[in-house]
Amino acid sequence: MFPLKDDNPTTRLPIVTLVLIVLNVLVYFLVQPVEVSAGTDFTFETAAIPEELTSGEPLSEAEFCAVVSPGSAAMNSLSIASGVCADPSPTEPAFPDKNVWLGALYSMFMHGGLMHLGGNMLYLWVFGNNIEDHLGRAKYLAFYLIAGVVATLAHVFGDLDSIIPVIGASGAVAGVMGAYVVWFPWARIRTIALIALINLKAWIVLAFWFVSQFFISPSDGVAWLAHVGGFVFGALFALAARSSNSFRDQLWQHKYRTLNPGATWDPRFGGREAVQDGRTPSWYPGP
């Protein structure tokens, strides 16, 4: 099941969402190395690693070399070119200048392949623009980054001693999706389901995605706990806004604030109502 677009228009261009998509694409094509051994070095030197976040220290040479597959192009290159994995030290850090805390931020902009990148950016575009529209650019960016860090921590708590890097925008995007399903559960999503192109309510699409995370095989190398953690964080954040008029008044853009405590929540458009002052607004796409 793949969402293509939602029938939930915004009132202005989602600049932050577009910038995030562009940054992710540029990092993948221009920053992440293509060559295997260089890519291995870059990932371990840059990305978040649970054991590093638990200890606060970079991996040792021995830990780093234990992860690289014996006989692989990366191992052979490292052994020949640098000698690191020929005689690794159990105490010397493989990348002594690495800031392990910044790794949690850098990981959000790195991806393991075109499918990984494309899927994340598709979901971010479909669901991110409306969250940005309601929160405003600065608050949306802060929410996105915090969701990504929370998602990484969820993955870390699931395996504190793991020395495998975790990369991808999936956790941050999951946070956006969690907020969307709370604010716009009835929004119509144009979706590819099997071989059909159909309209589904957002809660169906996102509930299917969420439940599917629990059926991911551990051998797939997917950080599913990060997805779940990000989604739950986003949903709880959105629930707090939905249940509290005062919090929502501080959080949302002025045009979307619900100042009347008795106002009816629109499950399709969030802070916008289909009828305003007895007239249907120009943005309303129809039933």
- Helices and strands, in order, run as EHHHHHHHHHEEHHH
What is the helical fraction, as a range of percent? 40-55%
Task: Say how many strands there are.
Answer: 3
Distance between the termini: 23 Å
How would you classify the helix and strand content by structural class? Answer: mainly alpha
- Tally of contiguous helical segments: 12
Mean pLDDT: 85
Multimeric status of the protein: single chain
The biggest beta sheet reads: 3 strands, antiparallel
Can you walk through the features of this model?
By secondary structure, the chain is mainly alpha-helical. Helices cover 52% and strands 6% of the residues. A 3-stranded antiparallel beta sheet has the order 1-2-3. A hairpin with a 2-residue loop joins strand 2 and strand 3. It is elongated and about 65 Å long.
SSE layout and pairings?
Elements: E1 2-6, H1 15-31, H2 36-46, H3 50-55, H4 61-67, H5 73-81, H6 103-106, H7 114-135, H8 137-158, H9 170-183, E2 188-193, E3 196-201, H10 202-212, H11 224-243, H12 245-251
Antiparallel strand pairs: 1-2, 2-3
Helix pairs in contact: 1-7, 2-5, 7-8, 7-9, 8-9, 8-11, 9-10, 9-11, 11-12
Brief summary:
The chain is mainly α and 287 residues long. The protein has helices at 15-31, 36-46, 50-55, 61-67, 73-81, 103-106, 114-135, 137-158, 170-183, 202-212, 224-243, 245-251; strands at 2-6, 188-193, 196-201.
